[in-house]
């Protein structure tokens, strides 16, 4: 009889745990939420729209993605509370928290909190095969290079990287899909992508025409890593049909962020919805294979939202005091 009662109690406990979202206090939750992404045709929009829909379906409120200028703008919109959630790379996040954002110099964006790790953003260069460009050093002086939306991670860092490597160019901006079209039409010579792979615009390009994906030499890779907050990254050969071997690149981690004033229970449920459903996330975008709780430590300076801290600690991960929001 004791054994039966114990099993019944355990079953009731498990059922209550599974229904946690239903019993969460939602009185202070927003009626809807929006995730700041980037331009259409890029990884941020595809990934962000997917996790917004997943969270909306799981927690039971309306949610969606918004096209933005990318990480730098997302940080500002989340800080001001105009967006509940956003997506950023660690470089622009560091600048925003230090008060060095180009959108608001001197303003320390202390209302930005970390949620969960997403994926690494490789910096990669794509050209038409017909251009004859096969390496970074082949890029001719004065080449018109598309760097993505103004203020994006690519636009912030890639021009500096190429200048470090001695490339002289004319700068162009636009959404990834638009720049892919301009490359195909011969209006620009190069697209310097900073986006999770596979990049939809590149996948579309290689279906329509022949392209070259340029890799950095070991010397070029080291030079960039010594100068910028990036690490070595191989773009795997099976990422694109164009590649027949891994391509040497550099990358920067991406993180989902939340406004720090959002209710703890809401951010907890949103974080749980994404990290407890990694197989589903991978159907949204292959880059989500690294959207895992154990990668929480890829954030070393953005304070975690208390709701995210609660989730990680339930999973057995101890968030250091210096990465918890000061009350």
UniProtKB/TrEMBL annotation:
The keyword Signal applies. Keywords: Signal. InterPro entries: TRAP_TAXI. The keyword Signal applies. It comes from the Bacteria. Residues 1-24 form the signal peptide. PANTHER family: SLL1037 PROTEIN. This is TAXI family TRAP transporter solute-binding subunit.
């Amino acid at each position: 009889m004791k054994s039966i009662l114990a099993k019944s109690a355990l079953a009731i406990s498990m059922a209550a745990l599974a229904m946690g979202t239903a019993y969460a206090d939602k009185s202070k939750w927003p009626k809807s939420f929006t995730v700041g992404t980037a331009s259409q045709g890029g990884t941020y929009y595809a990934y962000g729209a997917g996790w917004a829909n997943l969270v909306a379906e799981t927690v039971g409120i309306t949610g969606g993605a918004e096209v933005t200028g990318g990480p730098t703008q997302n940080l500002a919109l989340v800080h001001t509370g105009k967006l509940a959630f956003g997506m950023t790379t660690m470089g622009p996040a560091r600048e925003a928290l230090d008060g060095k954002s180009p959108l608001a110099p001197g303003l320390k964006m202390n209302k930005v909190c970390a949620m969960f790790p997403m994926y690494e953003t490789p910096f990669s260069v794509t050209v038409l095969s017909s251009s004859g460009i096969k390496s970074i050093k082949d890029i001719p002086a004065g080449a018109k290079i598309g760097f993505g939306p103004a203020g994006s991670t690519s636009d912030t860092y890639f021009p500096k990287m190429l200048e470090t490597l001695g490339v002289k160019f004319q700068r162009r901006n636009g959404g990834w899909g638009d720049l892919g079209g301009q490359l195909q039409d011969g209006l620009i010579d190069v697209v310097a992508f900073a986006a999770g792979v596979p990049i939809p615009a590149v996948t579309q390009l290689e279906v329509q025409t022949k392209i070259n994906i340029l890799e950095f030499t070991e010397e070029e890779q080291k030079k960039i890593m010594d100068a910028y907050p990036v690490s070595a990254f191989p773009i795997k050969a099976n990422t694109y049909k164009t590649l027949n071997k891994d391509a040497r690149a550099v990358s920067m981690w991406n993180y989902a962020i939340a406004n720090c004033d959002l209710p703890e229970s809401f951010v907890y449920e949103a974080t749980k919805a994404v990290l407890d459903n990694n197989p589903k996330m991978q159907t949204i975008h292959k880059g989500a294979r690294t959207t895992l709780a154990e990668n929480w430590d890829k954030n070393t300076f953005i304070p975690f939202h208390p709701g995210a801290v609660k989730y990680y600690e339930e999973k057995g991960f101890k968030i250091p005091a210096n990465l918890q929001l000061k009350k």
